[in-house]
Amino acid sequence: MPQYKEFHLESGVNKMTNKKKFGVTLFIILFSYFLILMDNSIIFTSTVKIANDLDMNQATLAWVSNAYTITFGGFLLLAGRLGDLIGRKKIFITGLLIFGISSLFVGLSNSAPMIIIARAIQGIGSAIIAPTSLALLMDNYAGEMRSKAIAYYGATAGIGSSFGLLLGGWLTSAISWRAGFLINVPFALFLLVLSLFSIKVTSVTKQRVDYLGAVLSVVMSIIFVYGITISNLVLILLSILIGAGFVYYERKIDFPLIPMSLFRNRIRSSSYIVRFIFMMAMLTYWFILPQIMQHMYHFTPLQSGMGFIPLTIVNFAAALYLPKLTVKYGNGKVMILGQSILLLGVVISTLVNPHSGYLFTMGLPMILIGAGQGWLLAPLTAAGITGVAPEEAGAASGMTNVMHQLGGPVGLSIVVLFTSNIVDLSNYYQSVMSFISSFLFVGLIILLINNRKN
């Protein structure tokens, strides 16, 4: 039997240990990441019921999603770096506590202000869990074990989002919209107990804390996401100015919140951009399809969730085969392959007349979309953390997740801006899918250029 080797951070020194199995740590990492992604997409199939129960209009209802998105995106950079500075086990457990308690209050909400505040706090918990889970993966696995773990992590990113639509539709139809959030509570408690006993305490980076950088990163991200969600150009420009100031400040100090060395590696930098573009496309895709399924094909929320099953199954199957594919062709070529297949599936779905029915318009193209997604997300994740020093793992993980979280609202806002006046459902669907195809095409061009330079 081959002996795989693994890096553990102990007293600041990487020590090699033999390991044949992933153990419970990978389960904790993947399940925690799955929970926050699933929770993020459950809301798509629950909004109508929430509005009816809490007597919310469309403007107020939007904040059930916006509040979560703003705090999630706003605290990612800070949360990722805190794992390096304070200790990943400590910050990860804190994230689970915040996520679990806030999920309870979301599920018990009896008014609009209560659910919006609880969702905002839930976003902070998710912002802690997302980058810390990836950094824990880097701490605990190396070599072939890390490659496989990242493949499973990437598959979780795609499966969690699409499975959330299925689970949300079922829980909303069979029980209540509240069940989709209350189910997080026992899961978070279970993961918390497992983490206390199973996750090793890692060494921390001994350096001064960049408090000003922390404040700037949170303010910049929150203003940006808020500006995007309400389509306010002034706020978006303000956030960009703050971002420029943040970068200038971080380059000048010796203890930056986000080391600028992260962006000196071309593979890492391009992976952040492509991941951002991927989420511009895919969040819009996950947003529009349930609408078309329910309004044009008269699916129930449960049926619209089940409509993503082809994508979910193929995504999982593709991810299982990914490690062999990466060993044979290399990470860069696999990313191009995944992006190309994903783009092909979306283009086919765009060109088919929606009146042809679910199977030809969405179901069959999902086979290609699922395969492309399965062969893209994990290589993008690997590229985003490639060559990163252990003491900067949290910062790199935070940047990877920032791109994942912020890309979606940007893409969706652009599409809504240009398609909101289209009344005909068929034209609306094809217009939105054309935007999605364009986003993915730009991502493919970036990958092809970067691969040629390598």
From TrEMBL:
Keywords: Cell membrane, Membrane, Transmembrane, Transmembrane helix, Transport. InterPro entries: MFS (IPR011701), MFS_dom (IPR020846), MFS_trans_sf (IPR036259). The keyword Coiled coil does not apply. The keyword Chaperone does not apply. GO terms for cellular component: plasma membrane. GO terms for molecular function: transmembrane transporter activity. Pfam families: MFS_1. The chain crosses the membrane at residues 21-38, 58-79, 91-108, 114-138, 150-171, 177-197, 209-228, 234-251, 272-293, 305-322, 334-352, 358-385, 406-423, 429-449. It is found in: Cell membrane. Coiled coil: none annotated. It is a multi-pass membrane protein. Residues 25-454 form the Major facilitator superfamily (MFS) profile domain. This is Copper resistance protein. The lineage of its organism: Bacteria, Bacillati, Bacillota, Bacilli, Lactobacillales.
